[in-house]
Every structure is written in C-alpha cells, then in structure tokens.
C-alpha cells in the first residue's frame, strides 16, 4: 500500500507541473456530488406518479436498467440536455413525446406533473375542453396500435405513454381528483375511509340527505336531491379554488374532504334514478 507521504509528493508534483490539475479535480468531484444530490431529490419519480400500473413498473426497468449508463435520462435532467434514445439529438421541449429529428416515441420524463403532460395550467379551475382536446390529440398519436410494426422498444414506450396520458386525463378531469392531486403535489394527502376531520353537524346533514334519497319514491324527488347536491359541489369548487389560490392548503384539504362526501351522494342519485327506469 502506498504511504501517505508518497501520495502527498505525487499530488504536489502534479499540482506544480499542471497548476489547473488540482482545481479541475476538485471541480469534478464537486459537480459529481452536486448532480448526484440533485438527482436523488428531483429525478426519481414519486410513488404516486406511477401508482401500481404494470406497464409503468416495466418502464422503470427500461429507463434505469437498460445498461445505457451514459444516457442523460438516467441522471440529472435538470442540468443535462435530454437527448433522444435513438438518434441522440437533443429534445427541444419537455415533456417530449416524440423526437423531432427521427420521429420515434420517447419514454416519459421523470417527475413530470399531469398538468404539464396535458399542457394545462396548474389551477383547480382548468379548462376541461382544452384538457379533452389535448387528450384526444395525444391518444391519436401515442396509441399502441400505431406502433405494431415498430421496434419492441417503441411499442413498450407507446404503451407506457398512452397509459400515463390516460391516468393524467382521468385525474384532472373531475374537480375532486384534480384537487386531491394538487394537494399531493404539495405533499398533502387525504386518507381514504376517514372522517375524523368532519364535524358532527356536517355528518348529520349527510345522513339526512342519504335517508331522503333512500326514501325517494319518484324520479322528481331524486332529481331534486341531485340538483341540491350539484349546487353544493359548485359552491365548494369556488371555495376550494379560492383557498388554493391563497395558499391555504389546510382549508382546501378540509373542503375537498367535504367534496368527497357530496360526490358520493351525486353517484348515489344516479343509481337511484336508474332504478326508476
């Protein structure tokens, strides 16, 4: 094993012969540690981004274990220009579904929000018509049927991208799932099946609405409950939007919890109306 003194002599000699050598090595080490730390905090997808979709778990394997160690997608995309996996040309926008040079489908960009995927403003009152238009456009171009004669890799990427677009669309389409997702982006989550945050007066009101719906004898009675519920959901939508704009996340969380109950009643109204048909 080399002695410490010997290593000092070697390093000192190199530093004297090449004055920039020591600074270059220090800079490389600093940049390596900086990029690694950045990647650990930003580049790996969150748990809820991928959910439990089988194809999406397959994508993790494709992206991180293909052996393409030099690929920018495996490391820090915030500092390195992302390039096409096929022709190596830089991708000019994020998210990039296709390479503009060779036209092949690309894998998903890690950590990209549903709002960015669907090209929508990150707001609770987004334009649903624009959302639907974007969805149809992406599905027409990304549908796996379009890649049946392409390479296996392109087929897999198209399946993953198509599934991701579906998930983004269904999440952002309805106000409740959209609001819950916005809270998740900010690190907040409403646990399923819990009502500890609801006060007794509110729960009593819900109980009375459910009882009235169960006892409804005509479509008119059920429709009246449906209209009242829709009005409450409209009011809640305005209140939630206002709370999110002000950054009052706890208030938005409580209002979204109420919206979940009324959304359930709205579904029960539809079921009740189907019984009269």
From TrEMBL:
Coiled coil: none
J domain boundaries: 113-185
SMART domains the UniProt entry points to: DnaJ
Cleavable signal peptide: none
CDD domains: DnaJ
Similarity-based family: Belongs to the HscB family.
Alphabetical list of NCBIfam families matching this protein: hscB
Name of the featured protein: Iron-sulfur cluster co-chaperone protein HscB
Native organism: Dicentrarchus labrax (European seabass)
Gene that this polypeptide is encoded by: hscb
